[in-house]
Amino acid sequence: MAWFMLPVDLLFRYLGLHINVWLTLLFGFLFLPHILGVSFGIHQYYTRTLLSIFKWATLQMELSAKEKNQQLYKHYTRGIIAKTPGSTLQQEFEDLQQSTLLSLEPRFELSDVFFFCRKALESIVDDDVTKCFSAQELESWNLLKRSNRNFRYLSLKLLALWVLGVLIRYGVLLPFRVTVAVTGISLFIVLSTMVGFLPKTNYLSDKVHWMGYRLCVGSLTGIITYHNRENKPKNDGICVANHTTPIDGIILANDLCYSLVGQLHGGLLGMIQRAMVTSSSHIWFERAEVKDRHLVCFKREGMRNTFLTNLQIISFTGSCVNNTSVMMFRKGSFEIGCTIYPAAIKYDPHFGDAFWDSSKFGLVGYLVRMMSSWAIVCSVWYLPPMRRKEGEDAVQFANRVKAAIAAQAGLVDLIWDAGLKRTKVKDAFKEEEQQLYSKILMGGHEDQNRCKHTEGGCPEGDKDK
Amino acid sequence: MFLISVSAAHLLRLYERFQFLDKDNRGHLRPEDFEAVLELSENPIGDRIVEAFFKPGQETVDFPSFVRVLAHFRPTEKNRNRDKGQPDPANSRTRKLKFAFRLYDRDRDGKISRAELLQVLREMLGMQVTEEQLQSIAERAIQEADLDKDGAISFDEFRKVGPLELGSAFILLTVRHLNDEVSSLSYWRSG
């Protein structure tokens, strides 16, 4: 049996060594830099290497797919529906009716129903709104099984690479990150409560907050690039950003200390929120209270007047969307009348998808996914401050801000209210379609009616369109 | 609108869509599941389209039937060899027209009655037109299409009125090959 014990013995010794090495690395590379705010620049090499590996992997898959003479599954298959871009109801009907050669002016045909029919089927197969709410899929593969469906085309090389990737991510990166996160959060809660007992100075509480945020970002290996720092929010305004994930707040707060406005959660998150309140000022409210917008505004007014230095208020408006579109912002933040500092956040999905599909997995599942991705890479752009113009109401102002954010981040600007994800569409939309169609028909019909009343025929081709 | 080649990738895409609609993971869809498609609620005849997926009397639709309905909307091949022995593919002109016919003919008696036509018109136009206008449109449509003067439009009469090329542009596998792909698909997913 002795020969059997030897490898086990070696293993244990290796592990013991391993743990020591691990702890030193952890301390040296993760804690200290984050606590002190120093960075080594390793991240860039990391991302560049990863990107070149991903490109190679995708190329391999395409080659093997070509061998099998099939197409790769790409989520952006707009090829499944060939929609005519930018066609209006009017154009479609004219096209449809030209082929019948029956009359020159638009009027009801039995085939008119085909138009609505086709639109309905197109939306059943693929509609713009629900696409926003499912995670974005990539054209090139990033070695995460969850973001690719072309698994059939894996060659042996790729499979080996993928297994290696899994081992690294779950065996090395995940434990590192979990340790950092746990330590970071506990440190933060403890220090924050302690600072709460001291007289309220901004300096200490800022430091504690910064440390906390940096550790959190580090635990996710967040690589954040801030652009246009000269537009950073100053003390007198509200910072508004597009909301993709729960970590948007952490990403923004990594750069500057904010007072946050948000919904109060239960559990661990609630504990953190409560700890934050002890050392600096934030507003947490219940979801039901949001209906009473006056209450929220009043609270914010109070905040603004009492604490004038070093505090800004972030309000995140709208529900989570998957970072390809910006939904309608809620009015509340824009009614107050102070300066708005828009910020646009855009995630790079190549290294890890930060989108939280709350119908698929809960918070813990989400965190595990995040921590086992390669990295969370995002860019933050600070936009120049905006104020409400004369004669502009809150909704128009909100839309203006939203358009600016969408333009900066390269996102699609949708008019759908994100609340639609949870509630039914209003009949108003249906009426609009009916109105459009009736205008087309009735326009033609008025000519016909006039013709009926006059004696004799009416001149052909006499349309007033 | 132009042809795009068919592949298992597209079928997989549709399967994902099916799964997305099937929120409770039952393996089949019910009429309520289609409400998840927000743009459908905005369509005046949305409810009729949803009905078209379900065979008369059935409350559920499974994936092959789902695809079969969608397969109607492949662009019609212009120069298809008309083999006498083989059944019409789903995307033939006849099949498409039949699909559209059934949108009007809800009670499936083979004829579009005036009442049924009025119903569809009312759905498409809503409150935007008066009752008289509606009646006159329906009257004219029936007069033009109804060749045997029985006051209703049969399928043959409907065919003559329909346009030469339906404006639809889906690409899917033909129904003939459907079963093979579906069975191989389910094997792959469970494996």
Automatic annotation (TrEMBL), chain A:
Pathway of action: Lipid metabolism; Phospholipid metabolism
Key words, A-Z: Acyltransferase, Lipid biosynthesis, Lipid metabolism, Membrane, Phospholipid biosynthesis, Phospholipid metabolism, Transferase, Transmembrane, Transmembrane helix
Transmembrane segments: 20-42, 154-172, 178-198, 363-383
Highest taxon of source: Eukaryota
Pfam families assigned to the protein according to its UniProt record, in alphabetical order: Acyltransferase
Primary subcellular site in the record, as a coarse category: membrane
One GO location term (cellular component): endoplasmic reticulum
GO molecular function, one term: glycerol-3-phosphate O-acyltransferase activity
Compartment(s): Membrane
Domain Phospholipid/glycerol acyltransferase intervals: 237-348
One Gene Ontology biological process: phospholipid biosynthetic process
PANTHER family, alphabetized: GLYCEROL-3-PHOSPHATE ACYLTRANSFERASE 4, PHOSPHOLIPID ACYLTRANSFERASE
Family: Belongs to the 1-acyl-sn-glycerol-3-phosphate acyltransferase family.
Protein name: Glycerol-3-phosphate acyltransferase 4
Organism of provenance: Cyprinodon variegatus (Sheepshead minnow)
Lineage of the organism: Eukaryota, Metazoa, Chordata, Craniata, Vertebrata
TrEMBL record, chain B:
Segments forming domain EF-hand: 9-44, 92-127, 133-168
GO biological process, one term: protein transport
A Pfam match: EF-hand_7
UniProt subcellular location: Cell membrane; Cytoplasm; Nucleus
Keywords linked to the UniProt accession: Calcium, Cell membrane, Cytoplasm, Lipoprotein, Membrane, Metal-binding, Myristate, Nucleus, Phosphoprotein, Protein transport, Repeat, Transport
UniProt xrefs under PROSITE patterns: EF_HAND_1, EF_HAND_2
Superkingdom assignment: Eukaryota
One Gene Ontology term, aspect cellular component: plasma membrane
A GO MF label: calcium ion binding
Record Gene3D superfamilies: EF-hand
InterPro entries the UniProt entry points to: Calcineurin_B_homologous, EF-hand-dom_pair, EF_Hand_1_Ca_BS, EF_hand_dom
Family under the similarity heading: Belongs to the calcineurin regulatory subunit family. CHP subfamily.
Full protein name: Calcineurin-like EF-hand protein 2
